Amino acid sequence: MKRPIAELIGTGRYLPDKVLSNADLEKMVDTSDQWILDRTGIRERRVASAEETLACMGKVACEQALESAGVDVADVDVLLTATASPDRLLPSQACDIQATLGAVNAAAFDVIAACSGFIYGLTVAEGMVSSGQAKNILVVGAERLTAITNYKDRATCILLGDGVGATLVRPARNGTRGILSSYLKTDGRLANLLYRPGGGSVHPPSEEMLADGSYFLTMAGRETFKHAVRSMSDACDQAMARAGLSGDDIDLLIPHQANLRIIEATAKHMGMPLDKVYVNIDRYGNTSAASIPIALDECVREGRVTEGTTILMVAFGGGLTWGAVVVRW
Ligand code: COA
Known about the structure:
Bound molecules: coenzyme A
Number of strands: 13
Helix content: 25-40%
Radius of gyration: 19 Å
Number of domains: 2
CATH superfamily of the largest domain: Thiolase/Chalcone synthase
Structural class: alpha/beta
Strand content: 15-25%
Oligomer: single chain
Distance between the termini: 16 Å
């Protein structure tokens, strides 16, 4: 096993107060609480208000991460945001979080890899630390998916929610703590399984687009599900092999929260009992790039992650993208 180059320290999160329950959705589309629960494991999700921009939510999550890391905002030299639902298309979301946070000494940019964005972001951060480019990197997963959700499409609107999670990455202080391995993979040929058909420069926003739903996130659910199970398992295997670890060495699996059945299939593949798997999809639904950093923050604050805990984080999403990171806390 290689010596860790970068470690994670400090975490934070922000979840909007407003809850959208399955019962609320029953009044909006032809669905039922039981169907949603049985097929996805989701009971409710959070919805941001007009004031709860990603810039505002990101500021709170980053402040918590910095406070728990004991790092001053002036010492942040990179702020990296993973998002698929930015407040605006230009500048990057990271620029707007940088401004609200007052991280004046940070270079800020976005990493776009849909639901895998946080895993991609951690890997970019590790590379920047190893090259000596940066010493304190805020990696933020931030999503306001309800803004790009089609509430006429029952197959997607039941899944998605809003939230932000953040962590700080810095040079590893000793030979044991930190990122032990990372694995990233993409198959752009499968992009149309999970994408937004319109709203970009090829099909600029239009009235028709809002009416026919092509402005919003669109997904081939059943196909995506199959790829998700396969890819999450592949990413776990590859990251574990690179770390030289086996399933028994992992104390906690933090999977992207897309569907409880996908999470259970991944745990089964890894031979991991469910009590070693963190699940909060029942409360937040799928928050894309934010799901893993939100879960990580909950695990740290609940004491499920302490010094020495070995964590496998794995994600899958639009692109298609997938990846995993093994971290010793
Ligand atoms: N309520 C009730 N019925 C619904 C429904 C809803 N919200 N959404 C779909 N259905 C219906 C379908 O119309 C279909 O009806 P039919 O058999 O009469 O045609 C039936 O339920 C089964 O649809 P299917 O799409 O096969 O369901 P599923 O078991 O695959 O579950 C998802 C649908 C979306 C929950 C599931 O495919 C999924 O989770 N996919 C992956 C999602 C994901 O991970 N996305 C993000 C990756 S980061």
